[in-house]
Amino acid sequence: MQHLDDTTRTELEAAAFRRLLKHLDNRKDVQNIDLMILADFCRNCLSKWLVSAAEERGAELDYDAAREYVYGMPYSEWKQHYQQEATPEQMAALEAHQARKKAAQEGNN
């Protein structure tokens, strides 16, 4: 993508991000814990990254507004309608993932 000018690259990245959000919106059955186990990020991470990007540019964006954008509705509403209780298997998988991540980070130090 180095051959693209900055504006075009930014537009493509933004379009891909919007498509990711639409994909996640169409897959409400995919729980955040599953995303964390498999990809080490979730919808809440995306929200935090948006807030961080806004701060880097001197723009104001609070976390709740960012989450509403990512979830397509207020987080409390999404949670009430779509978030399921994590199973013991999911919790064990997340803990194992976090332990592997911690071990890898310690190995790089």
Automatic annotation (TrEMBL):
This is DUF1244 domain-containing protein. Gene3D superfamilies: SMc04008-like. Residues 30-95 form the SMc04008-like domain. Pfam families: DUF1244. It comes from the Bacteria.
